[in-house]
UniProtKB/TrEMBL annotation, chain B:
It comes from Drosophila suzukii (Spotted-wing drosophila fruit fly). InterPro entries: POLD3 (IPR019038). Signal peptide: none annotated. Residues 127-435 are annotated as: Disordered. This is DNA polymerase delta subunit 3. Pfam families: CDC27. The lineage of its organism: Eukaryota, Metazoa, Ecdysozoa, Arthropoda, Hexapoda. Residues 157-173, 282-291, 398-415 have a biased composition (Low complexity). Residues 174-204, 257-266 have a biased composition (Basic and acidic residues). Residues 298-310 have a biased composition (Acidic residues). Residues 385-397 have a biased composition (Basic residues).
């Protein structure tokens, strides 16, 4: 038996919004430690890793490890039926082929439940090695979203250059070039507005804009985003989900095309 | 839906001017059928509602001198029909449009020729410039100058295009109007169908092409599953797989292109080298492409085996030594070509071979039709096959292929090229290992 209850459906809604653009289907691996999801996008350029800790749920019970393959579009549809303040409960029997998602209004006057068919997804799980990143940038998630959106107008690729001076996002295309530099903030009143750079060595990497923009769909989940970079290693874009876990996106860099 | 049903269901708004031409197009009926149905409907309605009918009058203008005057077509109100019929010689009339008489109406087209009706005209000559009048946009003929409601006409157009209507409302003014819009060529079988479908086809063809170029998806699958792809060949034995990456990448030492070349030369047989070399050396090919095919004859063989290469090299030396005439002087006219290689003279032969190999590879692709052999005197003869178009085409190709190949290389890199940097999208699988 699996049962997980969240106080606010809005969190689950946001999570779904954050991944459904990249993934059509995914397997939620439930265990007593929580729920985990790992999946690559169709083109195998990016990887989404979602971790929801069991202690972040209002109620969490997972008797046996359970993998629930879901169509994320369908799940998003169901979640749209919930009010933001509703309690949401996910339930599934062991070896069941359906999951029940139940919404309860705050005053318990309205209870709605939706049953969704589960899928058998043959998805590869990748081992993600521990990496000492050369640069870790923490910045406002909104700012990052804005930058990605703006630069996407100039080019399909964004060059992220991180030095001790700061982090620079650049794009150049037919329109022209765009450079956005963010310096490390000295002292900020609000923690969420801070730009913090931890740098071992400078890094310059090129990434596809469209993926970055897909990642920024997770912006509502967190005020801050963390970009971890290292030469010839995928970028890690991490959004923390307060008290619940995190969502990490891995994006393969664009590499030098030696053969041209 | 049949016209009768549409009429019975009041689907046709007679507050607006209902044109028979529209009905013809929409319901794909013959004029007679439409006319009959419409007349019957009007008859039924007539006592209750009054209709204003317009008729198309066709006849010949009465001229004073000669008996046979000019053809005349006119759309006239029912009330004036008799006058017109009297006025015009050989007059005939047909119902053209109907609307409810009186009241306020939104303006409607009182005249609209058929958009896609194939008609055969008995005695009408094509205007010579008529075809030119049809402006086409994306292969779809634009409207013919008669103003019509865009939405409505579009709907009709698309419907009409789906099935070719072959109605022949004999000798009506529609014909002449329509005919003027038709391109002269397409009278018989040039149905609107073909015009309509072709852009769709084009679009559908263009779309995958664009997708191929733009989406990383296509690149990635190409890299993973199609080793024949130009990019995926030698320097990255399995660029798509993680393991390789981790074995090779972390050491960080990205080998220089020359090193790679050497490696691949050692490891891979010549044909495998072919494609990358093509890309790496646009400049040498340009040098050799125009007239210097003779050099590449040697190179071609030299690429095949080192022994042969040596032999040929010697032979080449010999030939060059025997004759210092420059090849440039009569490259195009002479059937026989003597070997001279300007690069050879500048560079030690063995160094040159590398470049030559590259050149040969490309040349091999370009001019497979040429026959080459050693003649009795020891000259290498390049005999161009009579098909001249081929070499001509292929000579153009190096210019064209160079940018084209760059664009093709990886679909993502093509666009990255725009950004000034030559990058291609790596797959995430290359960085993580499967559990």
């Amino acid at each position: 038996m699996f049962e997980a209850r969240l106080g606010q459906a809005t969190i689950l809604k946001k999570i779904l919004d954050a991944i459904k653009d990249l993934l059509n289907e995914a397997t939620f691996d439930c265990s007593d430690s929580g729920i985990q999801l790992q999946a690559m996008d169709n083109s195998h350029v990016s990887l989404v890793s979602l971790t929801l800790r069991s202690d972040g749920f209002d109620k969490f019970r997972c008797d046996r490890n359970l993998s629930m393959g879901m169509n994320l579009g369908s799940m998003a549809k169901i979640l749209k039926c919930a009010n933001n303040e509703d309690n949401v409960t996910m339930k599934a029997q062991d070896n069941a082929d359906t999951v029940t998602i139940m919404f309860e209004s705050a005053n318990q006057e309205k209870v709605s439940d939706y049953e969704m068919k589960l899928m058998n997804l043959d998805q590869e799980h990748l081992g993600i090695p521990e990496t000492d990143f050369s640069c870790v940038v923490r910045m406002p998630a909104m700012e990052f979203a804005r930058i990605c959106r703006d630069l996407a107008q100039f080019s399909e690729s964004v060059v992220i250059c991180c030095t001790k001076e700061g982090v620079k996002f650049s794009a150049s295309g037919d329109v022209g070039t765009a450079n956005i530099k963010l310096a490390q903030t000295g002292s900020v009143d609000k923690e969420e507005e801070a730009v913090i750079i931890e740098m071992q060595e400078p890094v310059t990497l090129t990434f596809a804009c469209r993926y970055l923009n897909a990642f920024t769909k997770a912006t509502p989940l967190s005020t801050q985003v963390q970009l971890s970079m290292c030469a010839d290693v995928p970028l890690v874009v991490e959004y923390a989900i307060k008290d619940l876990g995190h969502i990490r996106y891995y994006l393969a860099p664009k590499i030098e095309d030696n053969e041209t | 839906m049949s016209l009768k049903k549409a009429l019975d269901d009041c689907m046709i708004d007679f507050d607006r001017c209902v044109l028979v031409t529209d009905l013809l197009e929409e319901y794909k009926l013959s004029y007679k059928e439409v006319n009959d149905v419409l007349e019957a409907y009007i008859k039924n309605q007539e006592p209750a509602t009054k209709f204003e009918k317009r008729f198309l009058v066709h006849g010949k203008k009465k001229t004073q001198g000669s008996g046979a005057g000019e053809d005349l077509y006119s759309v006239v109100l029912e009330s004036k029909l008799k006058d017109w019929l009297a006025k015009v010689q050989d007059a005939e009339s047909q119902l053209y449009s109907v609307k409810i008489a009186g009241g306020t109406k939104s303006p409607a087209a009182t005249f609209k020729p058929m958009q896609h009706l194939e008609v055969k005209l008995a005695k009408v000559e094509q205007r010579p410039g008529a075809g030119k009048l049809v402006p086409t946009a994306n292969g779809v003929p634009a409207t013919n100058g008669v103003k019509s409601e865009p939405s409505k006409s579009q709907g009709i157009k698309s419907e009409a295009s789906k099935s070719s209507v072959k109605v022949e409302p004999s000798k009506s003014s529609l014909k002449t109007e329509k005919d003027a819009d038709k391109p002269p060529v397409g009278k018989g079988k040039h149905s609107p169908e073909s015009k309509k479908t072709s852009p769709k086809e084009q679009a559908s063809k263009a779309k995958p092409a664009a997708a191929k170029k733009g989406s990383i998806n296509s690149f990635f699958t190409a890299a993973a599953s199609k080793p024949k792809d130009v990019k995926a060949t030698p320097s990255k034995p399995a660029a798509g797989t993680m393991d390789n990456f981790f074995k090779k990448q972390p050491p960080g030492a990205q080998k220089s292109p020359t090193e790679k070349e050497k490696e691949t030369k050692k490891a891979a047989p010549a044909p495998a080298k072919k494609e990358p070399s093509k890309k790496k050396s646009p400049s040498p090919t340009k040098k050799t492409s125009a007239a210097n095919t003779s050099v590449q004859l040697f190179d071609e063989e030299s690429a095949e085996s080192s022994d042969e290469e040596e032999k040929l090299d010697k032979l080449r030396r010999k030939v060059i030594g025997s004759d210092n005439e420059s090849d440039v002087e009569k490259p195009s006219t002479s059937k026989r070509r003597r070997i001279s290689d300007s690069e050879d003279e500048e560079q030690p032969p063995k160094k040159a071979t590398e470049q030559e190999v590259i050149a040969v590879d490309e040349e091999m692709d370009r001019e497979p039709a040429n026959e080459t052999y050693l003649d009795e005197d020891g000259f290498v003869i390049t005999q161009r096959k009579p098909v001249k178009a081929q070499p001509a085409k292929k000579k153009v190709s190096p210019k064209a292929t160079a940018p084209a190949s760059k664009k093709k290389s990886p679909p993502s890199a093509g666009k990255a090229g725009k950004d000034g940097s030559k990058t291609k999208q790596a797959g995430i699988m290359s960085f993580f290992s499967k559990k």
